[in-house]
């Protein structure tokens, strides 16, 4: 245990913790907690169940945020006490204490790394829940199958992290896989985390649909938008919306609904189209479609504002490339993020939802780009 420098490690942990606290706005968190607690204790809170759910969820999240910050400080103090105590124990007991202290130091560093990433999520909509759409691209049936693989990957990622999800719309391809799918991830900071997943994903493998066993490259696009709240919902005049209704369908065109409950909503001025068919009634599908349409228009407005700012600043470089990640299953196994350079050889783990490191590296990469642009 002598090879592990506890003094330097504890000093470094305290330094990292101090830098996180400096940008975490502890007072702001406490004020938000007080305000949310008052709202949660209001007798009429559950008169509006949706509003009540948002308040209680926000309260739980803020409390967890404060607990994370305060508990880490206590844990660093405990490690220091453990190391000091080891100096007064016999050799056997001291070794056990130092082994425990070393393991705790490693766990604390991991927790601080996770918290550091969370602190970097400071964008205007980063705290929001997310709406994710996956569309198959070039590559025929392999691309449709790849879109379905990505859907499973993200749903497994959400499940592993304890984030509820809800599939809103599914468009099945003729032979296999998906043309497109839209789903919600209902957790705080889901948009901030998943927004770094937006872009074009590429798959290279031996095609299971090619009877000659040839290698195939296929593509799928991932779009991530924040779920809007009532306070920032855009008012869309009825005259600007075209609504078509149709019957929901399952794989291969199999009917799963005998009524015209599915809704296709088109925003006439922009041409944005949103389809919803996974709710039980036309009214529910219409409400879900309108919410997603409002979210997309909100992001379109922000993109237009950002484009104007870049034009005024003379910045003609795109901050995000089209192709952002490659999944190579043949002739070797590798998943590589082309922006951050981060890669993993265990493709099965990644496709089973092991995305946290990719997302964390993406958030750090994006934050470093923001700092350069602001500088």
From TrEMBL:
Modification note = Methylated by PrmC. Methylation increases the termination efficiency of RF2.
Residue positions, PTM N5-methylglutamine: 254
Q: Read off the Gene3D superfamilies from this record.
A: 3.30.160.20, 3.30.70.1660, Release factor
Key word 4Fe-4S present in the record?
A: no
Gene Ontology terms for molecular function:
translation release factor activity, codon specific
Keywords on this record? Coiled coil, Cytoplasm, Methylation, Protein biosynthesis
A Gene Ontology cellular-component term: cytoplasm
Outline the extent of the Prokaryotic-type class I peptide chain release factors domain: 247-263
Q: Where in the cell is it found?
A: Cytoplasm
The protein's superkingdom reads: Bacteria
Q: Which residues form a coiled coil?
A: 91-118
A Pfam match: RF-1
InterPro entries documented for this protein: PCRF, Pep_chain_release_fac_I, Pep_chain_release_fac_I_sf, PrfB
List all membrane-crossing ranges.
none
Family stated for the protein in its record: Belongs to the prokaryotic/mitochondrial release factor family.
**Protein's job:** Peptide chain release factor 2 directs the termination of translation in response to the peptide chain termination codons UGA and UAA.
Record-given protein name: Peptide chain release factor 2
- Name its species: Rothia dentocariosa
């Amino acid at each position: 245990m002598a090879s592990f420098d506890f003094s330097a490690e504890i000093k470094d942990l305290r330094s990292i913790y101090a830098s996180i606290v400096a940008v975490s706005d502890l007072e702001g968190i406490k004020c938000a907690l007080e305000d949310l607690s008052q709202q949660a204790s209001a007798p009429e809170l559950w008169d509006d169940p949706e509003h009540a759910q948002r308040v209680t969820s926000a309260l739980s999240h803020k409390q967890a945020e404060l607990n994370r910050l305060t508990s880490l400080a206590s844990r660093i103090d405990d490690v220091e006490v453990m190391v000091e105590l080891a100096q007064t124990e016999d050799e056997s007991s001291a070794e056990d204490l130092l082994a425990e202290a070393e393991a705790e130091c490693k766990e604390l560093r991991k927790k601080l790394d996770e918290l550091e990433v969370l602190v970097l999520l400071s964008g205007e909509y980063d705290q929001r829940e997310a709406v994710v759409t996956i569309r198959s691209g070039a590559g025929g049936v392999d691309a449709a199958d790849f879109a379905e693989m990505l859907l499973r990957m993200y749903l497994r990622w959400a499940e592993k992290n304890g984030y509820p999800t809800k599939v809103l719309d599914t468009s099945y391809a003729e032979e296999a896989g998906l043309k497109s799918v839209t789903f919600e991830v209902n957790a705080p900071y889901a948009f901030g985390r998943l927004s770094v997943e937006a872009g074009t994903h590429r798959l290279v493998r031996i095609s299971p649909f090619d009877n000659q066993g040839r290698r195939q490259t296929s593509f799928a696009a991932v779009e991530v938008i924040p779920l809007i709240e009532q306070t920032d919902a855009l008012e869309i005049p009825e005259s600007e919306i075209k609504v078509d209704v149709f019957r929901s369908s399952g794989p291969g065109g199999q009917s799963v609904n005998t009524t015209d409950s599915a809704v296709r909503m088109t925003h006439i001025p922009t041409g944005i189209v949103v389809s919803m068919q996974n709710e039980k009634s036309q009214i529910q599908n219409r409400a879900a479609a309108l919410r997603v349409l409002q979210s997309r228009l909100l992001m379109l407005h922000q993109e237009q504002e950002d484009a104007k700012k870049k034009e005024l600043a003379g910045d003609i470089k795109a901050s995000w490339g089209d192709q952002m990640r490659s999944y190579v299953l043949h002739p070797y196994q590798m998943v590589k993020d082309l922006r951050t350079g981060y890669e993993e050889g265990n493709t099965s783990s990644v496709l089973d939802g092991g995305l946290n490191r990719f997302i964390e590296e993406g958030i750090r990469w994006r934050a470093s780009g923001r700092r350069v642009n602001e500088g």
